[in-house]
Each structure stands twice: as C-alpha cells, then as structure tokens.
Recover the amino acids of this structure.
C-alpha cells in the first residue's frame, strides 16, 4: 500500500503542476518561462526575437548569388578554402610573391614568377591585397605542406568557396550558388540570415556552417522557397566537431518567418545545432539520410508546418550531461514525421502542450519487432513525458509513446497503432482530463507501466495481449519468443487505479492485469476478451477492489478471477456457458429496471458485472445469450459456478501464475501480423 500511496501522490503532483502552470503571454501570444514540476530548470518558452520575424539585427546587407564559379561578395567577408577553426595566417602568403599590379596574371604565369624574381622590397606584406589569401590565387606549390589538402584527412577533395560573415547584423541572401559554404564566424554577436529565394548547395560540406555567434536566426521571407543542400559524401572537421549536416551550428539557432525551407541532408543530417534548435514558424520540408532535426541542448517547436523524412530519428535532443537540457518541447504547429527509427527522441523530457503530430516510425505497426538493439518508437524519452494537448496519429513498429521514467497525459486526441505497446512507462503513468481521447487501434499491450492511474478521459484499446498491464519491465528486456520488453514482470509491485473515465478494452489476453493491486473507485469500464484458456477479464496478484463505477466484463471462465471480497460495491461473476458474439448481456433488478445492457463483441463463457445498484441481499435477473438466471446476492461479491472464497482464485482449476503467458506470447509472435 505504501507504493500505491506513493504512486497516487506522484500523480497528484503531476496533475497539480499542470493545472498550476499559467502562461505569461507576450504581445506575440507565446509562452514565457513555463516551468513544470521536476523539470530541473528547463526553459519551455520563446524569446521575442524567436517568434517575431520582423526583428532585424543591425544594418541589412544584401548578398545576391548568380551561380558564377568565382563570384565573391566582399561585403560579407572572404571566399576561400575552409581549413580549420583557426584562420589561415598571413604568413601563408609569402612576402616574395609578386603583386597582381606588378605582374599581371597573363604576363606572369606561375612558372615565370620564381621566388628570386620578386625581391622582398618590391612586395612588402602591407601591399599584398586581401584577395591574395583566396584559395584560387595562391599557387598550390606555395601552400605550406602541412596545409595542403592532400595531407589533411578531413579536407574535402574539392575545396568549396566560402562566403564568410564575420560580424553581427542582418544579411539577406538570394539567388543560386553551388559548391559554397555560408560560414558565420561572428564571435558573441547576433546574426540574422533572411533567406529570400536562395538556393545553396555544397557537395563538399555543410551549405550553412555557424562556427560562432551568440544566436543565429534564419528567417524565411514571405512567399519564397529556399533550398539548402549538402553532398552525399564528404569528410570535414573543424576543431572538435565533425560537420555532417546541411545546416550545422555551434550556436543557438532559430528558424522563423512565413516562407518555405527545403532542406536536403544528403550526407547525414538536416539541421544540427550543438546548442538550442528552435523552429518558431515557417514551412520546412526536411529530407535527411540520418536525423532530420537535431538540437543537442533542446529542440523547441513553436508553430509552423514541418515535414520530415529521416533515415534514423525525425527529431532528436541528446544532451546526457546536463539534466536541464536534452529535451524536446512542442508548443504548436503541424509536424509530420516518417522516421527509420524513433519519431521524436529526447535524452530527458518530452513536453507537449499542443501540436498536430503524425509519426510513422520504423515502417509502422505492420513491421515486426525482433530485436531490442534498435528503437522504432513514436515518442521516446529517457526521463519523462508530459502531454497536455494536441492531436496525435502515431504508427510505430515499437511503442507509440515510451518513457524510461514517467508519462503524464492530461489532454489531447490520440490514434495509436503499434506492434508493441500503445503507451509504455517504466515507472508511473497517469491519464486524466475530460478532453483526453485515447484510441489504441493495434497493440501487443495497450497501456503498460508499473503504476497506472486513470482519473478521466475516453479510452479505447485493442490489444493482442493485455489491455491495461501494471507489470514493470523495460525496453531492453528480451522476453519469451524474442519480443523485447516482454520478459520482466514485477510480481506484487504494480498497481492499477481507476477513478473515472470511459474505458473500453478488446483484448486477446487479460483485460486488467495488475501484478500487484487493482482498485476501481469510479468510471465506466467494458472488457471484452476471448473465450479461451490462459486469459482472464481480471488478473491481480494481491487485491482487486471495486468501490464505485460500472464494470462489464465478458471472456473466458476457466481462469477468471472475481473482485476481492473486501470490495464495498456489489459485484457478480457468473459462468454462462459458451455464448456467441453479438449476444446481449442484460442485468435487471427485482423491479424490472435495467441496470446494465451491453452487446458483446466476442464469444464468451463468463460475465463479471459491478454497478452501484448491486447490493447484498437483493435479487437480480441476468440474461446472457441463451443463459438466464435469477441471482440473489448472498454477499457483496458473488460468484456462481466455482468453489473457494470470493475474489481469491476464481473458478476451479485457476492455478496459473499471474503474468505467465509464455505459450500465448509465442503464438502471438508467430501470428501477430
């Protein structure tokens, strides 16, 4: 009971935290400093310059590309070979080099300008124009051997041109440019790039590389389509970073505006930020060989229309060194993700307030999960998941919603299809909110956690094993038949508490399976199970009490378990003999009033009913298909067709160990799809 109290207290803390969170609205109607309980100082908010695309940092400089191979815009910096984080020193241009004004290029070819023909006094260092530092003007034989591309394993075979931005401000890019890196090296300054119908493709590295800045904002100009692409095969490093994305940033990066960004991460990733990555607005179409959007410290999506097709994860935040980072926050927008692995992955927390989210992970629920080495989840968090609203269509080869810690759902509309669990939390799972609509159309187990608390919502579950399972276990455990996460059960430690909501379960295993305790104090629950051996409407280890609500369960009789005798609301378990699906179960009181009437979806041989009007000493009439009986309740919990004390082991022959379903799992594994 101590664990039950602890789980309930944790749930109340979660729900109180959500109900107490108030947005501090700015003039842009966006949240400020939203902090949830137990989130270790995570910043769930957006700054004004993130959400306002009209903010301009300093003077606006126009940069227009015309796809000329040697075009250089000196207003933005230098063009030349990108080497390392340290700029090429001036000594790389020998003082004995002949200035262009003294030896024209057509009159002084490289073989005609030997070192002895250009005395030092004729070519002082101060007279060498800056453009002599470009990669195209320094003869290859004059570049020191240690910097020659062929001796640098990280240097591309073909050196791209660099358009360099060295100072803060606003830069508007337009036109088309190939084999170019837009390099931002602005120290601690803020930089805004306005993409005004620009196409930048670099086959030999990132198309946009943010080496240093306090913050960079990429603004998508209204009505424009902008395309940023990298190549499919290159090797570039800078200091301690491997540059492996079409847009690679070492600073906080924001994308806003009302235009469109087409992003092609042909080598590995679409966008990588080693700090924060914020998508505030705009239309993004991201195609990536590996990860679509990656922000090490966090990924925050404020609004916009985002489509991601990723070879591995769709959205990822992976800082595992700071507990206040490594999170994903979705405040709004429409996001569609097709991912080879996880749809959204966070090293710490996933916090969702409102989003229209569609995810297909690992090919969807038509695939079969054979190994725990790869992850194919819709939403995956190492720490916790908080969801207060949104619309979710999640189709996953693995769990649709998964947390190694806790999950708190207090709103939203969900359509889930999984070849594993619909929702899984390693520890606690709480579902509340009258606006919550949760539909699990396909799953191995519908809802699974160590402690499950349901206080409200409309929940519909279709499961090939248990509907709601309080069992524990984790994603890394390989269970019977090779199915991940199906072999670890915590006998006696789990709990299911239901105090409200409208719950429907259609399962092929157990309806409510508590490897510990079951407590129902309210709500309306319908369980429809199969008429077959190792299944049960109810399955609990210690106690299964009902003190309120309405319960209607049909299923198999051989392993059935009635509510515990300590229940304070009347309950009955009746063996009806085999009855066909589509027949009606009806319970009336002695006055002819109908208390329960339900058409069944599956064949059954057992009925378990509980209703506030079922009381000890009263007489009732039960009709179930061809079966009719008059039942006088000789106790609060009544069982017919069995021996033993009410609520203990059910009908004769119920000698199974709770949670032992090896044979059934093997059969489902072979026939799951």
């Amino acid at each position: 009971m101590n664990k039950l109290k602890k789980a309930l207290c944790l749930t109340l803390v979660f729900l109180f935290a959500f109900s107490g969170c108030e947005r501090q609205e700015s003039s842009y109607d966006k949240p400020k400093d939203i902090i949830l309980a137990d989130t270790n100082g995570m910043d769930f908010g957006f700054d004004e310059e993130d959400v306002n695309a009209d903010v301009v940092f300093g003077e606006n400089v126009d940069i227009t590309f015309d796809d000329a191979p040697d075009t250089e815009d000196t207003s933005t910096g230098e063009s030349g070979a990108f080497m390392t984080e340290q700029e090429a020193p001036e000594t790389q241009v020998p003082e004995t080099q002949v200035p262009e004004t003294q030896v024209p290029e057509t009159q002084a070819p490289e073989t005609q300008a030997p070192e002895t023909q250009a005395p030092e006094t004729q070519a002082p260092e101060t007279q060498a124009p800056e453009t002599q530092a470009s990669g195209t003007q320094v003869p290859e034989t004059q570049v020191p051997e240690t910097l020659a591309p062929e001796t640098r394993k990280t240097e591309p075979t073909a050196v791209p041109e660099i358009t360099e931005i060295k100072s803060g401000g606003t830069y508007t890019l337009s036109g088309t440019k190939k084999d170019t890196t837009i390099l931002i090296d602005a120290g601690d300054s803020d930089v805004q790039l306005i993409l005004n119908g620009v196409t930048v493709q670099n086959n030999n590295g990132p198309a946009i590389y943010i080496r240093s800045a306090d913050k960079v904002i990429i603004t998508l100009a209204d009505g424009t389509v902008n395309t940023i692409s990298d190549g499919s095969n290159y090797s570039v490093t800078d200091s301690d970073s491997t540059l492996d994305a079409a847009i690679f940033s070492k600073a906080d990066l924001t994308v806003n505006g009302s235009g469109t960004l087409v992003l092609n991460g042909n080598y590995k990733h679409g966008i990588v930020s080693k700090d924060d990555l914020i998508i505030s607005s705009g239309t993004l179409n991201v195609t990536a060989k590996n990860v679509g959007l990656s922000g090490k410290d966090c990924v925050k999506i404020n609004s916009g229309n985002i489509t991601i097709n990723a070879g591995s994860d769709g959205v990822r935040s992976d800082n595992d060194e700071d507990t206040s980072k490594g999170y994903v926050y979705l405040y709004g927008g429409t996001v569609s993700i097709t991912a080879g692995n996880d749809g959204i992955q966070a090293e710490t927390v996933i916090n969702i307030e409102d989003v229209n989210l569609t995810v297909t992970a690992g090919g969807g629920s038509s695939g079969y999960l054979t190994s725990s080495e790869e992850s194919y989840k819709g939403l995956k968090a190492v720490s916790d998941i908080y969801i207060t609203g949104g619309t979710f269509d999640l189709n996953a080869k693995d769990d649709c919603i998964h947390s190694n810690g806790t999950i708190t759902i207090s709103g939203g509309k969900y359509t889930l299809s999984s070849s594993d669990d619909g929702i899984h939390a390693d520890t606690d799972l709480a579902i509340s909110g009258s606006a919550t609509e949760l539909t699990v159309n396909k799953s191995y187990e519908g809802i699974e956690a160590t402690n499950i608390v349901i206080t409200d919502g409309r929940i519909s579950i279709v499961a090939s094993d248990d509907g709601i399972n309080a069992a524990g276990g984790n994603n890394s455990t390989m269970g019977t038949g090779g199915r991940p996460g199906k072999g670890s059960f915590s006998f006696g430690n789990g709990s299911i508490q239901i105090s409200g909501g409208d719950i429907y379960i259609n399962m092929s295993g157990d309806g409510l399976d508590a490897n510990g305790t079951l407590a129902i104090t309210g709500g309306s629950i319908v369980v429809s199970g199969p008429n077959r051996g190792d299944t049960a409407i109810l399955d609990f280890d210690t106690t299964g009490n009902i003190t309120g609500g309405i319960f209607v369960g049909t299923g198999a009789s051989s392993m059935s378990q009635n509510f515990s005798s300590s229940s304070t609301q009347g309950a009955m378990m009746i063996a009806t003999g085999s009855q066909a699906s589509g027949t009606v179960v009806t319970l009336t009181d002695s006055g002819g009033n109908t208390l329960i009437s339900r058409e069944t979806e599956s064949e059954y041989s057992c009925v378990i009913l509980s209703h506030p009007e079922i009381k000890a000493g009263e007489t009732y009439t039960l009709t179930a298909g061809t079966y009719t009986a008059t039942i006088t309740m000789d106790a609060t919990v009544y069982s017919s067709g069995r021996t033993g004390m009410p609520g203990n082991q059910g009908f004769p022959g119920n000698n199974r160990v709770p949670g032992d379903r090896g044979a059934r799992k093997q059969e489902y594994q072979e026939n799951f799809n």
